[in-house]
């Protein structure tokens, strides 16, 4: 977790995190990823990635190169794999900053347009991100959807990471995920943000990815089965389209503001 650096009074208490959504992070070997970050491409600086999640990234910048980012500021970040041939670029919001006790300053960044980021990903990024064939959307900021799962006598709960018209990704603890068998169908129940409609239906696990103490399970909906998920699928698809349109509009406005 990142804490804000008090520039005028280093001894004062740390501020509370700006972003209240839970970020599922995992340590990243320092020789795996390289990053460059800046307000504009011409003034970016090299940074070291020390952790990564589906929603954001933690970076370290040497003190003598510190760009003095402020919490809430929007920056551009380039991520490059040192051993594999892929590069992604995305806008990110500065959430926290803090000296690391050594010669670096740490920043916590939240990705702003996950749709744009996923569009850039190649299959080699599967170890860090979960991908599906269909377009997916993320939830609005500060929203969390709890997904209730049922398979046999097991009743784990997880947090929705992303959603498409054909499936979703759910984050669970490794212990909770271990109770679910990929070979068997299961039932899932969830509600969309600011809507009272409950969706319930059958699904199957099509992919599992572990990052630290969290496991990300990708589910494919069984649209041939009975349940409100199938009966109200049009409402679900309309929500996905609405979120995708808003994410695309945000990306266009952000790019326009930088020219």
Q: Could you give the topology of this structure?
A:
Elements: E1 25-27, E2 33-38, E3 45-53, E4 56-62, E5 74-81, E6 87-99, E7 104-111, H1 114-120, E8 146-150, E9 157-163, E10 167-173, H2 174-178, E11 186-191, E12 198-211, E13 214-221, H3 228-231, H4 233-257
Antiparallel strand pairs: 1-3, 2-3, 2-5, 3-4, 4-7, 5-6, 6-7, 8-9, 8-11, 9-10, 10-13, 11-12, 12-13
Question: Describe it for me?
Answer:
It is a single chain. The protein folds into two domains: about 100 residues, Beta Barrel (Thrombin, subunit H), CATH 2.40.10; about 100 residues, Thrombin, subunit H (Beta Barrel). The chain has four helices and 13 strands. The two termini are about 35 Å apart. The strands form two sheets. The protein has a six-stranded antiparallel beta barrel with strand order 2-3-4-7-6-5. A hairpin with a 4-residue loop joins strand 6 and strand 7. It is an alpha+beta fold.
Catalogue the unreliable spans. 1-26
Task: State the shape.
Answer: globular
Largest sheet descriptor: 6 strands, antiparallel, barrel
CATH class of the largest domain: Mainly Beta
Gyration radius, in Å: 19 Å
Number-wise, the strands total 13
Mean pLDDT: 77
Order of helices and strands: EEEEEEEHEEEHEEEHH
Instruction: Assign the structural class, choosing from mainly alpha, mainly beta, alpha/beta, alpha+beta, or little secondary structure.
Output: alpha+beta
How much strand content do the residues show? 35-45%
Query: What is the helical fraction, as a range of percent?
Result: 10-25%
CATH superfamily of the largest domain: predicted glycosyltransferase like domains
Helical run tally: 4
Domains, number: 2
How far apart the termini lie comes to: 33 Å
């Amino acid at each position: 977790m990142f804490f804000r650096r008090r520039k005028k009074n280093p001894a004062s208490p740390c501020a509370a995190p700006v972003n209240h959504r839970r970020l599922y992070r995992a340590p990243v070997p320092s020789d795996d990823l390289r990053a460059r970050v800046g307000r504009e491409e011409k003034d970016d600086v090299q940074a070291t990635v020390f952790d990564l999640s589906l929603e954001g990234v933690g970076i370290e910048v040497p003190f003598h190169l510190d760009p003095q980012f402020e919490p809430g500021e929007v920056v551009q970040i380039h991520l490059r794999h040192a051993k594999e041939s892929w590069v992604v670029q995305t806008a990110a919001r500065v959430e926290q900053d803090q000296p690391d006790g050594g010669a670096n300053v740490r920043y916590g960044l939240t990705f702003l347009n996950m749709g744009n980021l996923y569009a850039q990903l190649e299959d080699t990024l599967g170890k860090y991100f979960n991908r599906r064939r269909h377009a997916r959307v993320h939830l609005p900021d500060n929203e969390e959807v709890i997904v209730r799962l049922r398979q046999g006598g097991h009743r784990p709960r997880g947090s929705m990471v992303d959603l498409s018209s054909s499936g979703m990704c759910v984050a669970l603890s490794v212990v909770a995920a271990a109770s679910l068998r990929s070979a068997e169908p299961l039932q899932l129940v969830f509600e969309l943000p600011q809507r009272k409609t409950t969706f319930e239906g059958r699904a199957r696990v099509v992919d599992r990815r572990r990052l630290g103490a969290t496991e990300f399970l990708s589910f494919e909906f069984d649209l041939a089965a009975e349940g409100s998920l199938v009966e109200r699928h049009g409402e679900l698809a309309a929500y996905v389209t609405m979120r995708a349109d808003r994410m695309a509009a945000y990306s266009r406005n952000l790019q326009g503001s930088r020219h």
